[in-house]
Specification:
GO terms for molecular function: carbohydrate binding. Keywords: Lectin. The protein is 15% helix and 25% strand. By secondary structure, the protein is of the alpha+beta class. The longest helix has 10 residues. The chain is globular and about 35 Å long.
């Protein structure tokens, strides 16, 4: 629990789309990070994880799963970069520093975090 939301961290790995579907079935969605405090809270789980961020609808227009655009971001240096091609899904790739968002291929398997507003 953090700032009026409940969080679920998966114990398995899955694609971004399948991870989102799991969250939706739980009455939640992939996590939306709205503040530095929430970013640091999510980093405490100490795992590479999917977040609810994608530019699949329009390249380089990153939006959260609820359709809102970014108001604050924690991209790693030189990210997002579509390094491996069509990297349309957002992840926290490391927990060792604050700015660790990466754009990744959506079909890679990651742990995911669901968020349900209370």
């Amino acid at each position: 629990y953090f700032n009026h939301s409940l969080y679920y961290v998966s114990s398995t790995k899955n694609t971004w789309n399948d991870s989102r579907e799991d969250c939706l079935q739980r009455g939640a969605d992939l996590v939306i990070i709205n503040s530095r405090e929430e970013q640091n809270f999510i980093r405490e789980f100490k795992t590479r994880t999917w977040i609810g961020l994608t530019d699949a609808a329009k390249e380089q227009t990153w939006k959260w799963v609820d359709g809102t655009t970014l108001t604050i971001s924690f991209w790693d240096t030189d990210e997002p970069n579509s390094y491996l091609g069509d990297e349309d899904c957002g992840e926290i790739w490391s927990y060792t520093k604050e700015n660790t968002w990466n754009d990744a291929l959506c079909d890679r398997n990651n742990v995911w975090i669901c968020e349900r507003k209370m």
